[in-house]
Amino acid sequence: MFGSIWFTLATCAFFMGLVAWLSYVKTKGEVSDSTGYFLAGRGLTGGFIAGSLLLTNLSAEQLIGLNGQAYRTNLSNMAWEVTAAFAVIIMAVYLLPKYLGGSFTTLPEFLSKRFDEGVRRYTVVLFMLGYILVTIPSMLYSGALAVLKLFDVPGLFGISYVSSVWLVIWVIGIIGAIYAIFGGLKAVAVSDTLNGIGLLIVGILVPVLGFIALGEGNLISGMKEIAVNHPEKLNSIGSKEDSVPFGTIFTGMIFANLFYWASNQYVIQRTLGAKNLSEGQKGVLISGLYKLLVPVFMMIPGVIAFHLYGNSLKSVDLAYPALISDVLPGYLSGFFLAVLLGAVFSSFNSLLNSAATLFALDIYKPRMNPDADDQKLISVSKWFGTVLAIVSLFISPMLMNASDGLWDLIRRFTGFFNIPIIVIVLVGIMTKYVPAIAAKVVIIFHVITYYMLVWGTDHLFNVTVPIHFIHIYAILFAVEVAMMLVIGKLKPREVAYQFKADPKVSMEPWKYTIPFSIMLLALVAVTYVIFSPIGLAYENAVVSSNFWFVIAAILLTAAALIFVSIKVWNQKYAQYLTSHNPPHSLKIKRESKTLYFKGKEQPLK
User: Fold this and answer.
1) Is residue 107 a contact partner of residue 424, using CB atoms and an 8 Å limit?
2) What's the whole-number average pLDDT of the chain?
3) Residues 6+ apart with CB under 8 A from 293
4) Cα–Cα distance measured from residue 265 to residue 267, given in angstroms and rounded to the nearest whole number
5) Residue 213's pLDDT band (boundaries 50, 70, 90)?
6) Separation between Cα atoms, residue 473 and residue 415, nearest integer Å
7) What pLDDT does 371 receive?
8) Separation of alpha carbons 36 and 273, rounded Å
9) Which end of the chain has the smaller Cβ count within 10 Å, N or C?
10) Lowest-pLDDT choice from 30-34, 203-207, 240-244, 426-430
11) Helix, strand or coil for residue 600?
12) Phi, psi of 594 (to 5 degrees)
């Protein structure tokens, strides 16, 4: 497909080796204690956090699947990516100061302090079942399928399709496991950031080359082609017939994204390892900005493929591979394969690292060996990670034998644990008297009710609930919040919960947190206007006559709000954080010779 296979493999190995070497250099000698291993020594800067969050979130499955959906229908599926900005802002502005202020290593650790050890075990079980039984195996398997669709592995190596699936899964799994098990979080973050840079390069390069091909050598002509012919392909406003109706953006999708970006351990672990609150907020918000690029490099190529190939492709999932094959120069084939593999195993190693962290810190230490020292915890984490990796490598290929229905289960499976966890976190933070029993009741209630609404009534009674599963997220969120509040009223805690600030890092906020958040929301609105019936999806011209007026109104409103935030809100926000992190708190970090006092760094004398 890409000229000489040996050239492709050699250049791929070179780029992957370069990433591995740079990751080793950046992490050498920094995983000697539990903080260094599990939280990257609390030294991650905004750039590494943003890069790692980007690549952890984006995968080869999305690269293939989202472009395939754009080829088949329109851009409505971009909602999962673009609207993540709402959750990212809540995480950066409100929840991250809570997490860093309490010096939490894992989310269950926070829940144990807010509720009790029982709630901690319940949430760990939910995370572990999701990671081990579905998320990790499906991540590996879908990644392997993406590679196989882009490269003819059976033909290249003269082996069967089944053998090719096993081979690709084991290659991805072993490489990812090496980073996660032996390098700890910082190795994962560094490798993710480097691979993320490569993904951005490829992500921008492919649509540019696609436009040039579509315009027969002229970039602008290619861009105009998709704007004036079949403009409906550029519509992001999903109808009831689309897989993501527009209305779901304002219901369950908000809570699904909030869980993912603000309470999913394998995502938030990067932010918990931030050098300080400022760097953490910067990293989280920049990752939200990256998400706005997803329509460009994960969906526009699918639209370009539709204009180039029409409906001639046998499968919608071949849209991106076909475009890559036709427009990407052969000398970049190895670089592209390295980036593709990096995107796949970044998600895998992130999941593996977080699962091992949860086991060591939330199961082994509190339940099995309370006196375990740092070296013991690191050792246990590595052993558990190794076992989990091996189990995953054997389970993942078995998905070849799964029915089509199981893929639906995989896509929706996080519904079993995303809503109850974010409900418990938010109610736990925002109330003082809701007891632990309320959290346990909600977890049990949700697992049973969600199954019945999404699958159970159909399986047991042959009755289908006519509600989109994303709307079910929102319904259960509201019901479960109400349940916890009612239980808190009827059977409150004897002693009110008090959040105790115990920061290990500076809690001075990033001065651009609120202005950047406003800009991010404005850009979300602008993105939807661009890809709407008054924007590029307009039938009678490139854009409608109202397009520029709406864009100008959004930008002027954002500019006014940013001005107010700089003049007024920034100071009030800093005062709010100070009131929740007492200025008399004194924290000394001997390793970095830094004194944290009154939220500022001072040289340690």
Assistant:
1) no
2) 83
3) 200, 203
4) 5
5) very high
6) 7
7) 85
8) 9
9) C
10) 30-34
11) strand
12) -120, 140
Question: Which residue did the predictor score with more confidence, 431 or 354?
Answer: 431
Q: Which of 39-43, 55-59, 150-154, 254-258 has the lowest mean pLDDT?
A: 39-43
Confidence category of residue 290, pLDDT binned at 50, 70, 90: confident
Given a contact cutoff of 8 angstroms between Cβ atoms, the answer to whether 536 and 78 are in contact is no
CA atoms within 13 A on the CB side of 127: 29
Kind of pairing, strands 586-589 and 600-603? unpaired
- Rounded Cα–Cα distance for residues 38 and 504 (Å): 15
Q: How far is C-alpha 258 from the geometric centre of its chain's CA atoms?
A: 10
Alpha helices in 396-511 (DSSP H): 404-412, 418-430, 436-451, 457-461, 469-490
Q: How far apart are CA 66 and CA 297, in angstroms?
A: 10
* Cβ atoms 237, 529 nearer than 8 A: no
For residues 49 and 192, give the distance between their C-alpha atoms in angstroms, rounded to a whole number: 9
CA dist., res. 485 & res. 491, Å (int): 10
* 23/21 Cα distance (integer angstroms): 5
User: HSE of 47 in the Cβ direction (CA atoms, 13 Å)?
Assistant: 6
Q: Is the model more confident about 33 or about 204?
A: 204
Distance CA 505, CA 596 (A): 7
Say if residues 424 and 432 touch (Cβ distance below 8 Å): no
Q: Taking residues 309-329, what's their average pLDDT?
A: 85
Kindly report the pTM of this predicted structure.
0.83
Cα–Cα separations (whole angstroms), residue 145 to 273, 309, 409:
33, 22, 18
Q: Are 339 and 199 in contact (CB under 8 A)?
A: yes
Joined tokens for residue 436: 């632990």
Q: What letter represents residue 181's amino acid?
A: I
Residue count of the chain = 605
Closest listed residue to residue 512, CA positions, set 337, 343, 305, 285: 285
- Structure-token match 């105790």, residue found: 500
Alpha helices in 91-160 (DSSP H): 96-101, 107-114, 117-129, 136-150, 153-157
**Separation of alpha carbons 83 and 105, rounded Å:** 27
pLDDT higher for 525 or 388? 525
The answer, yes or no, to whether residue 252 has pLDDT greater than 50, is yes
Question: How many helices and strands, by DSSP H and E, does the chain display?
Answer: 30, 3
For residues 306, 312, 316, 321, the Cα torsion angle rounded to the nearest 10 degrees is -80
89 and 409 Cβ atoms separated by less than 8 Å: no
* DSSP state string for 432-445: SS--HHHHHHHHHH
Distance of CA 199 to the CA centre of its chain: 15
Rounded to an integer, what distance in angstroms lies between the CA atom of residue 38 and that of residue 27? 13
Q: Residue 320 — pLDDT band, cuts 50, 70, 90?
A: confident
Residues 6+ apart with CB under 8 A from 523: 85, 289, 292
Which of 317, 337, 8 shows the shortest CA–CA distance to 149? 317
